[in-house]
Amino acid sequence: MQAHPWVRRLSGSCVFLGLWAVSTTVVAAPATDVRTYPAPAGLENDPDYSVQVNGKDVFVYKSPTAGIASFEFEGTAEVVVTSRRDPKWVDIRPRSRRVAPVIKDNKITFQLTKAGNFSVELNGQPKRHPLFLFANPLERDAPLPNTPGVHYFAAGQVHKPGFIEVKDNETVYIAGGAVVEASIHGKGVSNVKILGRGILDGTNLRKLMSEKKMRSHFISLRDCKNVQIEGVVLSNGQTWQVVPVN
Predict the structure, then answer these.
(1) Taking the CB of residue 201, how many other CB atoms lie within 10 A of it?
(2) DSSP bridge partners of 204
(3) Reduced to 3 states, what is the DSSP secondary structure of residue 29?
(4) What is d(CA 111, CA 227) in angstroms, rounded to the nearest whole number?
(5) How far apart (Å, rounded) are the C-alpha atoms in residues 151 and 178?
């Protein structure tokens, strides 16, 4: 027996309403969490830029190539870059991320909802000391100081260990807000990690090599197995950067 036309319509309406209810379910956005790093003691902020993220100051490290600013976030980050130069227009690369800056006076404001590495370039002059912005995801499971097998370089300091030799099952950890003037070496070792959110600085590498009467790459790993390099910023290397051999 066929159902009454009104019954057929009501059944269809119920299905439609059910689908509509599912399609409009609201998923709560993740709460915003922004973490900045302490300025390394003895270093001055790059005079070309000041940076704030959600109202928090971010230290800008001055390298010969660019200003370097790093932070961590989850959710939405509003970034405000104040430039000593007069920004007429701004390119934020990669352009595929479609970051849209708003310029007012000498302040550049934009929002990020996803972690990434960005270059903020002013007035069509990408080689004139841009700002490199490392908007990192929140760091999970960072090693603790004094953990056996960890070369730990704490935040807020400039460390000058020179040459770091890694052995089996060792980690070099450079915390956000740390600058480490060194090169890292491993030969015939396994299960090595180089991690963190800090800066490995090669400015004095040639001087170190001259003093030690040796040659070195910035990160040199020969005949090694199971090596992980993640998160660290390499600045002003004087030789080839990461050189894995065999």
Answers:
(1) 24
(2) none
(3) coil
(4) 34
(5) 13
Long-range contacts of range 127-130, CB-CB < 8 Å, 24 or more positions apart? 129/48, 129/65, 129/66, 129/67, 130/66, 130/67
Strands lying side by side in the sheet with 102-104: 56-58, 49-53, 77-83, 107-112, 102-104
- Pairing relationship of beta strands 67-74 and 131-136 according to DSSP bridges: parallel
Beta strands 150-153 and 107-112, pairing class: unpaired
Token pair of 233, please?
């910023």
pTM value?
A: 0.84
**Alpha carbons within 13 A on the beta-carbon side of 170:** 18
Report the C-alpha gap between 16 and 118 in whole angstroms.
44
pLDDT tens profile 164-191: 999 999 999 999 999 999 999 999 999 9
Contact 184, 147 (CB under 8 A): no
How wide is the angle at C-alpha 166 spanned by C-alphas 164 and 172, nearest 5°? 75
Task: Give the model confidence (pLDDT) of 56-74 as tens digits.
Answer: 999 999 999 999 999 999 9
